[in-house]
Amino acid sequence: MPDFEWRFTLVLLTNGVMIGLMYALIALGFVLIYKATDAINFAQGEFVMFAGFIAAGAAGLVGFWVSALLAVAGMVALGFGLERIVLRPLIGRPVIAVVMATIGLAAVLRGFATLVFGAGNRSIDMPVPDEPLNLGPVMIPPVQLVGAGVSLVFLAIFTWFFLKTRIGIAMRAVADGQQVAMAMGIDVRRYFALAWAMAGVVSALGGVVWGAMLSVDNQLALVGLKVFPVVILGGLDSVIGAVVGGLIVGVVENLAAGYFDPYVGGGTKDFVPYILMIAALMIRPEGMFGRRRIERV
Amino acid sequence: MFHREAGVFKTTYAADMALYPLPIAKWAVAAFAGLFIVIVPLTVDEYYVSILNLILIAVVGALGLNILTGYTGQISIGHGAFMSVGAYTAANLVVRLGAPFWITIPAGGLMAALIGAVVGVPSLRIKGIYLAIATLAAQLIIEWTINHVPAISGGVQASIQVPRPSLFGFQLKTQTELYLFLMFFAVLAIVATANLVRSRIGRAFVAVRDQDIAAEIIGINIFRYKLVAFALSSFYAGVTGVLYTYYLGIANYEQFQLPVSIDYLAMIIIGGLGSILGSIFGAVFVTLLPIATRWFLESFGALVFQQSDLANMIPNLRLILFGGLIIFFLVVEPEGLNRLWRNIRNYFRVWPFSY
Questions:
Q1: pLDDT of B5 above 70
Q2: Which of A1, B32, B255, B283 would give a disulfide with B62, using CB separation of 3.0 to 4.6 Å?
Q3: Owning domain of residue B92
Q4: ipTM surpasses cut 0.90
């Protein structure tokens, strides 16, 4: 049945694009921090989970919109606080120090979230209809559509932000060379804090959107592991790379899951993105849109 | 005989590199050997010996990771997976061929070394965070492969029963017997590492860590040494996996997932990067942390909290404490417990006439 095959592929592709855009949203938080501060955030998934917990916890009391705003506010505060307490003392230290610090942070956030909100499963009810939209041969759940929409809007905003605004240009200057930026009168520490706060905003939205799709528990943090293939493919310091990487990972993992899962007993989704990532690392470590760094002795 | 020098008086390189810098060092080592090999097995209770066994296993793994991350400067978030490679190699050898431990332990180590070297190949092109992410991918891919290939994992539960090792036809049954068995390998690992890091290879590792381009310019083949570091380090990890499998009596990939890799990274960070004593301190500290947390909360937590809440709190508090300590050590004492120990020792070196 060639007609059916074609339809099946189309469904997988649409699903992949939607999920891919939602990955891009989370990867964006990662890229923001790397772009401005040169730090790799291994706790990105935990950021998203924490935001999801705040939104889900508040949703029962104050309704969806206020709880989403609370999540944003909470994550901005968290971003500022963490930069001040954890990341700032580590400026200028070896890569492993920052990597381990964010891994430690991930453990703290996971423990803290489960301790405060409990291990149970919570849901976020987005004010959108539950039945999937019927678009010809494919069906799309509205939650995914909202997620993809939010993702696209934010990607547009951040592209504009880095190209046109004074703050965005200052951030790029800081990323290019901290000492030169300081000499030009840019307060480097302020922009570091700002970058973490902005990553907090993006993670909060990611938490709300992913939480609405998957429901919130401490497994939500596993989404963070998918960020690595996305950003490596696209380039660690590229906003547009996050989108393209997200789309590639989303589409490839959905196609692989659709076609190979029956033969290997499932779980292809957790496997194929990393194979893709290793290939990307071997061929072009800086990613499709990333900037190649030149190292000198 | 029982004195320490007040300054550096070495005049030859041989004296500088000696394993025992002073006669007292020999006495200290002899005293420790006597305490841990003779007195502890005779006096300590089985339960506490089983904790010591966990520490001994962790010492081997932490030393291995320290060779790679501490001495050679290559981050690995995949050591848990290398351990699982060793564990399943040994378990399959035991179950299918009935191999004794003196075959399974080197075989597990060699298989892990092979896989580790393959994972290390990208280190030629990438370093730092990129390598960290590549090893993370290796961890997830190896986990997935073991879980999905029944030929390796032995079926649905992905676990294989492994009997305790036997020595000259005498099976090690009690924890104390296992303790002496594990002690042999832990001491072997410590001595091997101590000798490795003062050899040509160890010096090359340190040169690669400090500046790999500069190391290449002075004639060190960095690709070869990075691969050697990956292979050696994974060999230790594989042996750790085999020992842990013997300890548990079962090979199960769930014992070697991502949190284990992070535990070992935490050990060498908290203990001290690039230090043998630090690996031991870190292994002791990280192994005891959850046990101490549990003991403390079970003893005193009931005064403040409900019993039902406590069961929930223990694993989470352990996570918070664990992450918090990693951050604390990174920010406040980057050289770890080893540095604290050195500070104490240096204070007493010239005590009471320090001025």
A1: no
A2: B283
A3: 41-349
A4: no
Confidence of residue A113 (pLDDT cuts 50, 70, 90): confident
**Which of B248, B235, B254 lies closest to B185 in space, CA to CA?**
B235
pTM value is 0.88
Side chain identity, residue B274: G
Per the CB < 8 A criterion, the answer to whether B4 and B20 are in contact is no
Beta carbons within 10 angstroms of residue B198's beta carbon:
14
Task: Tally the C-alpha atoms within 13 A of residue B218's C-alpha that lie toward its C-beta.
Answer: 10
- Are residues A278 and B326, on separate chains, in Cβ contact within 8 Å? no
Any A CB within 8 A of B313 CB: yes
**pLDDT, tens digit, 9 for 90 and up, residues B84-121:** 999 999 999 988 888 888 889 999 999 999 999 998 88
Query: How far, in Å, CA of A189 to CA of A198, rounded?
Result: 14
Q: Residue B138: inside a domain, yes or no?
A: yes
Q: What is the DSSP letter of A269?
A: G
Domain layout of chain A by residue ranges: 16-126+140-254+263-283
The secondary structure of B85-115 as a DSSP string is: HHHHHHHHIIIII---HHHHHHHHHHHHHHH
φ, ψ dihedrals at A138, nearest 5°? -115, 155
A100 → closest Cβ in B313, B319, B326: B326
Note every long-range contact of A41-44, with CB atoms under 8 Å and residues 24 or more positions apart, other chains counting: A41/A102, A41/A199, A42/A99, A42/A102, A42/A103, A42/A105, A42/A106, A42/A224, A43/A102, A43/A103, A43/A105, A43/A106, A43/A109, A43/A224, A44/A199, A44/A203, A44/A224, A44/A227
Residue B33 lies in a domain: no
Contact A27, A225 (CB under 8 A): no
B:103-132 residues touching chain A, CB 8 A cutoff: 122, 125-126, 128-130, 132
pLDDT, tens digit, 9 for 90 and up, residues A263-284: 776 677 878 888 888 888 888 8
Query: B168: distance to nearest CA of chain A, Å?
Result: 43
Which residues 6+ apart lie within 8 Å of A265 measured at CB?
B148
> What CATH architecture does domain A16-126+140-254+263-283 belong to?
Orthogonal Bundle (1.10)
Contacts of B262 in chain A (CB under 8 A): 103, 107
Of A271, A282, A297, the CB nearest to B144: A271
Query: Would residue B241 count as lying in a domain?
Result: yes
Taking an 8 Å cut-off on Cβ atoms, the answer to whether B323 and A104 are in contact is yes
- Residue B192 sits in a domain whose CATH number is 1.10.3470
Amino acid, single-letter form, for residue A29 = G
- Does B207 map to a domain? yes
How many domains does one find in chain B?
A: 1
Is the Cβ pair B125, A285 closer than 8 Å?
A: yes
